Amino acid sequence: MRTLPGAVALALISGCAKQPGSIQPKFATSHPYRGMSCEQLNDERARVQSELARLTALQRENANADAAMMTVGLVLLWPALLGLAATTDRSDAIASMMGERDAMDIVAREKGCPAVSVGAPAPEPSVATPEV
């Protein structure tokens, strides 16, 4: 009888939404993008990146809600863990879109397309400081 709540908790834990930063891209072939011009690639990448940003924000909200429910459930009241089933894990959709974005990036680099500032912010340039 004691193992039933533990088993329920374990089953619900596995249904938690992942934080977006822990999602790895899924492989996507670059073949559909090879026939596109640089302008078409940039437009498509902007569309994918916009949808990816929207899904990432929703995923972050769900992951944070799951973490809060898990804390309440484990600390105060285990029936609160049933609320974990109310969130949607969009990690598969995010991983697929990340793979598509990466495939477009590969084709754009191969074609020599100018870089566009869509997506993740560029890293800060390192500034050389003179040694004293």
Describe this structure in words.
With 132 residues, the chain is mainly alpha-helical. It has a domain of 92 residues. It has three helices and no strands. Helix 2 packs antiparallel against helix 3. It is elongated, with a radius of gyration of 21 Å. The C terminus is likely disordered.
Strand content: under 5%
Radius of gyration: 21 Å
Order of helices and strands: HHH
User: Unreliable runs, pLDDT <50, ≥5 residues?
Assistant: 7-14, 118-132
Largest sheet: none
Number of H- or I-type helical stretches: 3
Distance between the termini: 71 Å
Structural class: mainly alpha
**Overall average pLDDT:** 74
Number of strands: 0
Give the overall shape.
elongated
Helix content: 40-55%
Which secondary structure elements does this structure contain, and how are they paired or packed?
Elements: H1 3-13, H2 38-75, H3 91-111
Helix pairs in contact: 2-3
